[in-house]
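STRUCTURE:
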């Protein structure tokens, strides 16, 4: 019986109680001083939804914090009473007399309230236990110009806990710069500790705007109670920084190019190796760095980097990065390219120019990377290797013995016999050379298979290929290239000759032919792997675009 009664009691208590007969509103203090917060409490004698009241009607005169809602039920001698209360902290925006209007729920209204906000008197020590200040690097700026906004918390006591909201501005990018800075300052003869937080604000459109200042809310130790008792009580405080108005002007109409406004912009380049001597066919790395102060990394424009005809360029994806230096943001964009000259000669690289608006001098300027003359020398080793591959082998015959006076018929048969014997000997030598080559390749594959049997199936390693090419290790380069071909699921076994048949005609096929010739040639010319690495990287980059049916599929298909 008791369990049944408790069940019905709980069910009855869980039912919504929407009937309301009384709605009260009150302030925790009145009057108050400007900069001091006040707590508005509204209570109803019923269980009501949390969104029954809308405190946004106070936004014109107050900064309204997030309200808290509490519901309670009491049962005395079988009689139940319900209550719903709302508590919200208000921060007046100006001094004067303000009217808090009546709140109404289901036809029941509270009484309106009148609040008097007094201005802070000169020399007054009230509200000086904790207060906020703010400043900005400039109040006159251009659209997309980054400015720095500082908010400082001054306090003379101890803060138990606290939180600081961010400034707000419509159509603007706001980000915190660096870490909070702690310090101390002497104000009106009293020593205050301070915490400074710095923001970078970038407005995205022109006009006049007011930055909504940050608000601090927390608990501080009551200094009067601390003098009287070891167990001092804390009290809640809410403070707001002064509002700041800014004027944002539009971009000049005569500016051409990508709009960039900054404190400083610079262009630099680096060559690896140095430009003392450039050889035909050898790759060289060009690194161009665009740096800017008071700019975010995503604001840096693209660069129009061009080279004259006669060069092959393999450009990496540009890298963007940003950092904080001495309280200011610095952004960089790095463009790395591998350049290979197809032929010897003198070439002129054009200059690179980036227009930008100087926020310090308020005028148009240009960051310029001067043009450069490149003198490309012919590579004798490359020419000798190319001739060894392209020129047919010429076998010198022994000098013919002095001809004897014989008949033309006898000489003709003798010559025919000698030529036939020489041809047979040459064919026999070629057959033996092919057999030895086949045995060498078969032995290499047997070693690879044996290694796979003991260590598991080998996988292609791009880092191993890069190392082999840079160390000019032709055997290791061949091994990694064949593993790469197997990874493409198009060439399960075979040689570099077979691999080159699956490659579209171009630099990579040429380099595969050179590598194959270096592996099975007695030439004293040392094989260089840099050109092969660059050709392979270029082939990988081009494989991302639609390719013909003769090309290998991309290494990392989408």
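SEQUENCE:
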């Amino acid at each position: 019986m008791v369990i049944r009664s408790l069940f019905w009691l709980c069910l009855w208590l869980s039912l919504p109680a929407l009937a309301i007969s009384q709605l009260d509103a009150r302030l925790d203090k009145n009057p108050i001083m400007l900069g001091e917060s006040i707590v508005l409490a509204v209570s109803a004698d019923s269980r009501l939804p949390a969104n029954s009241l809308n405190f946004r009607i106070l936004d014109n005169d107050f900064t309204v914090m997030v309200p808290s809602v509490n519901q309670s039920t009491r049962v005395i001698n079988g009689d139940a009473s319900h209550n719903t209360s709302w508590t919200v902290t208000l921060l007046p925006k100006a001094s004067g007399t303000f009217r808090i209007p009546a709140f109404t729920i289901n036809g029941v209204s509270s009484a309106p309230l009148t609040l008097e906000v007094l201005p802070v008197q000169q020399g007054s020590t009230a509200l000086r236990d904790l207060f906020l200040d703010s400043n900005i690097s400039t109040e006159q700026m251009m659209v997309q110009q980054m400015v720095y906004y500082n908010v400082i918390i001054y306090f003379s006591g101890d803060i138990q806990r606290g939180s600081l909201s961010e400034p707000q501005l419509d159509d603007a990018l706001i980000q915190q710069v660096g870490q909070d800075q702690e310090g101390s300052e002497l104000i009106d003869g009293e020593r205050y500790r301070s915490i400074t937080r710095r923001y970078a604000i970038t407005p995205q459109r022109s006009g006049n705007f007011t930055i909504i200042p940050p608000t601090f809310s927390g608990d501080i130790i009551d200094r009067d109670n601390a003098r009287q008792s070891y167990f001092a009580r804390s009290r809640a405080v809410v403070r707001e920084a002064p509002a700041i108005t800014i004027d944002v002007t539009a971009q000049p109409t005569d500016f051409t190019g990508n709009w960039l406004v900054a404190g400083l912009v610079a262009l630099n380049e680096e060559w690896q190796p140095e430009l003392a001597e450039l050889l035909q066919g050898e790759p060289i790395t060009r690194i161009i760095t665009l740096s800017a102060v008071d700019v975010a990394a995503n604001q840096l424009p693209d660069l129009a980097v061009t080279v004259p005809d006669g060069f092959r360029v393999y450009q990496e994806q540009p890298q963007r990065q940003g950092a904080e230096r001495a309280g200011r943001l610095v952004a960089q964009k790095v463009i790395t390219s591998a350049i290979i000259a197809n032929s010897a000669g003198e070439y002129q690289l054009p200059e690179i120019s980036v227009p930008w608006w100087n926020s310090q001098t308020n005028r148009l300027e240009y960051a310029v990377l001067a043009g450069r003359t490149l003198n490309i020398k012919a590579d004798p080793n490359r020419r000798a290797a190319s001739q060894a591959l392209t020129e047919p082998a010429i076998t010198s015959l022994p000098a013919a013995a002095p001809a004897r006076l014989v008949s033309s018929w006898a000489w003709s048969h003798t010559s025919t016999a000698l030529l036939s014997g020489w041809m047979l000997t040459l064919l026999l030598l070629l057959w033996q050379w092919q057999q030895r080559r086949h045995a060498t390749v078969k032995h290499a594959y047997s070693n690879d298979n044996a290694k796979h049997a003991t260590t598991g199936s080998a996988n292609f390693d791009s880092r191993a290929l890069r190392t082999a090419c840079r160390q000019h290790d032709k055997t290791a380069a061949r091994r990694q290239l064949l593993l790469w071909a197997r990874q493409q699921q198009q060439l399960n076994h075979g040689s570099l000759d077979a691999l080159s048949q699956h490659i579209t005609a171009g630099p990579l096929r040429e380099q595969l032919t050179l590598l194959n010739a270096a592996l099975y040639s007695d030439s004293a010319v040392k094989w260089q792997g840099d050109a092969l690495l660059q050709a392979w990287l270029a082939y990988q980059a081009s494989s991302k675009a639609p390719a013909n049916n003769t090309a290998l599929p991309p290494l990392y298909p989408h």
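REMARK: The longest helix spans residues 408-455.
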